[in-house]
Amino acid sequence: MHYNTFLFDIDGTITDSTAAILHSLQDLLLSEAHQSYTSDELIFALGLPNTELGNHLGIDGWETLLEEYGQKYYEKYVNTITIFPEMEETIELLKYRGCKAGIVTSKTRNQFQGGFGSLPCAKLFDCVICTDDTQFHKPHPAPLLDCMTRLGGTESDSIYIGDSQNDMLCAANAGIKGGLALWGCYRAKGIEADYYIRNPSDLLAFI
Predict the structure, then answer these.
(1) pLDDT tens figures, 162-192
(2) Cα(137)–Cα(104) distance, rounded to whole angstroms?
């Protein structure tokens, strides 16, 4: 299959933000919930939706706590975030060959601007849908369909690249193909995807 509309998640897909996520989560849990965890103990949190994370942590009102304080701690570690090798060059080549590139993320617009939005490669994307841009959120198809529509993509020519089961469910619910980014996925075993992609440059074979 060939595609010309490439939609991406951010964390674990475009950026290696593992350190920022884990350290900011540690700080938040210690300062606001008075719970102490090591980075290794929090690895399970990578790729989990906020609701599931709150259930695992057993914290009532977790999503509200995260909304009020999460960005404050995350911004302390923004300088540790890096773009995965080959990713920026791959997106540039996709664009050069006439493809459209968009982002569908669970970050709020403020979180996006405070992290990824400040990186030079952010300008490569033709459309960015954040969690506060739509009423429903991943794995509901609404944000993905919104981005696809704005880019003029169709179900048959669009693909969503992400690192989690939530991302792959979102793609399936939207009726498009999902590619699992193995380079940033911590729990690939058991995740159902249309494609399992080892390196960002492998995406060039899809055009």
Answers:
(1) 999 999 999 999 999 999 999 999 888 899 9
(2) 10
Residues shown for the chain: 207
Q: What is the b/e burial string over 196-206, where b = at least 16 CB atoms within 10 angstroms of the residue's CB?
A: ebeebebbeeb
Q: Supply the DSSP symbol for 111.
A: H
Which position has the token pair 């075993």? 189
Quickly list DSSP for 37-103. --TGGGGGGTT--HHHHHHHHT-TTHHHHHHHHHHHHHGGGGGG-EEPTTHHHHHHHHHHTT-EEEE
Please tell me what DSSP assigns to residue 114.
H
pTM exceeds 0.85: yes
**Whole-number average pLDDT of the chain:** 92
First to last CA, the chain: 8
Rounded-to-integer distance, Cα 120 and Cα 51, Å = 31
The residue whose two tokens read 């350190």 is: 19
Task: Write out pLDDT tens, residues 95-153.
Answer: 999 999 999 998 888 888 877 888 889 999 999 999 889 899 899 999 999 999 999 99
**Kind of pairing between the strands at 177-181 and 158-162:** parallel
Pairing relationship of beta strands 5-8 and 100-104 according to DSSP bridges: parallel
Q: How far is CA 81 from the centre of its chain?
A: 13
